[in-house]
Amino acid sequence: MGVTYNIFNESEVSFGIESMVKISVGNGFNRVIAELLRDNIFLVVDENVFELYKDILEFDLPIFVVPAGEKNKTLKIVEQITVAMLEAGCDRKTRLIALGGGVIGDTAGFVAASYMRGIEWVSVPTTLLAQVDSGIGGKTAVNIGAYKNMFGAFWMPKEVIICTDFLATLPDREWLSGIGEVVKTAILEPKLWELVNSGRNLLIRKDSVLIEQAIKLCINFKERVTRIDFKEAGLRRILNLGHTIGHALESVDGYKLTHGEYVLWGIKHETDLFANRIEPIFLGQIRELLNAVLKGRNDPYTKHDKSIIDKAAAKDKKNENSKVVYAVPVDVGKVEVKTIN
């Protein structure tokens, strides 16, 4: 079974959002500092970001520093943040600020969705992956054991502040992780595909002009998809390209790589799986782009028994009626969502 989406076909409108979040993109830390100077805020920040940017975080404000890494995206951390907020006197009018990468956005966003049945929050993504994907769209969650994002909520931030200056201190591994989500979005979005496919060497070399263009196109695309289908009932499922196998690899491989790397490998193996459904020239271009980005890196898929990966994929939260859901990019701007045994 499958449903094919020509991107932004009006007939695919399902859940709409009354008012979309404000998203700002730029360099300089002034907008971030202005948010930190508000009254009645609580800051949740990644420990690496905290150490790197202590000079702009030296304010008298309640703060919780989350240890770095996917392993800390847990209900235990959610509980610790909640207790810290209660002890700091946070109330229903408190605004929570999430400063960090995808782990911080997912975790702090879930705290905001849950604290006193929901408070305002502001997403300040500091990694390329979070700026182009996870920091946008209002999906919040934590992991349960090896299972990704199984406990969460749809809870839109009041605002998303994207400061590209944070990318200057991004390690190469995290840069590749962000490229994973840029490539995923490019395969889905024709304008971004043209930019990335023709400028892939600039992307790999961290060209600032191309990256800012890519960030804006990624945001615009995800914002439009989210506006049409907020709760992932239809069109939004296309954003899971590479994630069915990617998430399975993450859990089976023990999170040794970054999320975006697993997405890249997931795209490779999902497009191989459905190669006969993809327009041949487009498939060739996808493979060429993936080879350029992943050059010299070891494929985690080859290290594990395929049946174990299949079992992990079968437990993905996107699945329906015991069938595994895949997003298949059949051509530029055309995606088929397939459910298979």
The dominant shape is globular
The Rg value, from CA coordinates, equals: 19 Å
Strand order of the largest sheet: 2-9-6-5-3-4
Percentage of residues in helical conformation: 40-55%
Task: State the total count of DSSP E strands.
Answer: 11
CATH class assignment of the largest domain: Mainly Alpha
Structure description:
The protein is an alpha/beta fold and 341 residues long. The chain folds into two domains: 2-16 and 173-340, Dehydroquinate synthase-like - alpha domain (Dehydroquinate synthase-like, alpha domain), CATH 1.20.1090; 22-168, Rossmann fold (3-Layer(aba) Sandwich). Helix content is 43%, strand content 19%. The protein contains 13 helices and eleven strands. The chain has a six-stranded parallel beta sheet with strand order 2-9-6-5-3-4, with helices on both faces. The chain has a three-stranded antiparallel beta sheet with strand order 1-11-10, with no helix packed on it. Helix 2 links the parallel strand 3 (41-46) and strand 4 (63-66). Helix 5 (128-134) packs parallel to helix 6, helix 6 (172-188) runs antiparallel to helix 12 and helix 11 runs antiparallel to helix 12. The longest helix has 21 residues, at 208-228. The N and C termini lie close together (10 Å). Mean pLDDT is 89; it is low at 8-19.
